């Protein structure tokens, strides 16, 4: 899938993205807490290179980190900056492709690529390019945090759908249900995802459907790509260990 089509998927989702969470504010807090604990230092220079509408970036900014967010979707990145400002936080954002990051070498202490963003890249060449860029912009011994779906388990079962997620608003103004249908390719590794949102306003329900494609990258393959890019001390951490909602590949950039 081209970068243009992925950007369109998230541009179209940007205004409603928070509705995929049962409680977006709680998710911002939990994810920020978990990632901050892994960073383990104060006021780190952090790049969130797939920031979306700011779920992880805002959570980290609340912990005092100096965060810059980039995303392939201009609308999502712009919303992340607005959401941070609404909460009294500073978050610089820009539209950028993680395969071509617009920063000098050694700019950051930590790079975050969370919420299954890397598997939007569908070839080994593109994944390698993105990881090489993440390593390039990290300082020596800088920290990489990449989260994906638990693909080793999913590749065994190849599910066709996800359970519905109900958004529970603080008031009666926003009601939403989200779920996904997965259509696996013949190669058994890639899948087309159809994302459905049922949105209620004024007693009437409307349906939004969006489509994108992922590569179900297992742990060993992704670890190998990261090692080839020059990362060291590679380890996978489970949600039970970290409190983050997805498995995390944790690595260092080397010296």
From TrEMBL:
Organism: Streptomyces glaucus
Protein name, as recorded: Class I SAM-dependent methyltransferase
UniProt xrefs under InterPro entries: Methyltransf_25, SAM-dependent_MTases_sf
GO biological process, one term: methylation
GO molecular function: methyltransferase activity
Residues annotated as domain Methyltransferase: 46-142
Alphabetical keyword list: Methyltransferase, Transferase
